[in-house]
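Appendix B. Chain record.
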Amino acid sequence: QVQLVESGGGLVQAGGSLRLSCAASGLTFSTYASGWFRQAPGKEREPVAAISRSGGSTVYADSVKGRFTISRDNTKNTAYLQIHSLKPEDTAVYYCAAKRALGTSGYYMRGQDYDYWGQGTQVTVSA
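Structure tokens predicted for this chain:
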């Protein structure tokens, strides 16, 4: 049974930092590309960042470039999202996702491309 479990969310002040983790089990993590998405209240889910299965290729939404860093440790079956300079508009539930990927360098920013999803972790940024 495949599971993706996010952690690391919480309540932080604007300007603060968080590191989100996504622990994967039940799959060969190194053969899956990963992505982070978020959904704010009343808004549609949006992509935040994605990383190839090897970790060598990454992509970011324009709204988070320079503040968010996606990474992964395939030896720990875990993906990460480091967030700096948090803003109130970053408040959302953050989800990680995994997609079976044949190539080592592909990354995916469309939610419909992904095979598995976590349950989400809440990030709340106070002004």
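Further analysis of this model is presented in Appendix C.
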